[in-house]
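#dry-run=false #mode=assembly
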Amino acid sequence: EPEVTQTPSHQVTQMGQEVILRCVPISNHLYFYWYRQILGQKVEFLVSFYNNEISEKSEIFDDQFSVERPDGSNFTLKIRSTKLEDSAMYFCASRDRGPEQFFGPGTRLTVL
Amino acid sequence: RKEVEQDPGPFNVPEGATVAFNCTYSNSASQSFFWYRQDCRKEPKLLMSVYSSGNEDGRFTAQLNRASQYISLLIRDSKLSDSATYLCVVNIENYGGSQGNLIFGKGTKLSVKP
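#status=ok
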């Protein structure tokens, strides 16, 4: 069964450093998403991406964040200058034309 | 304000028990409804979509009441493997171009004991 994959599974970085989180969505899917989940809290929407552009972003997704689909398979989330409060699980999700979204296993980001 | 509210639990039940989870959502523009399950430190996994007519998948039954903005999940004959956090999720799609971002509840923790 096709699935969303994400790398790395765990990223440790120093405050102020840039990180890039990578995702490979399910191959025939059209809509891509990033969500995050701070430990003990609910899953929160960050950004949606369709047709090679951002379609919606939350207030969390400020100028420090960017997304890119550099080729036909990868979908990346970049955090330019990480803060302590960026420590969280970051989940990528994708869907086709239906409403159901399928999530990758996540990247645990730890900012020291 | 867009919110999804759930009883956080935990629900501690014996194997074989029937357990019900409830959820309310505040935005009447919500279009699609789901239950996801999440194991500790894992990704949310789609359990089932919820339809207005109610739907069943094996031991799992979901109901939606749009008038009351209320969603439920019933699990019959609980198994040890059902232990997880159950997330109530809604999708607000508007015709202005929103691509259906999911709004999650905090989840209800279920622990099934032998």
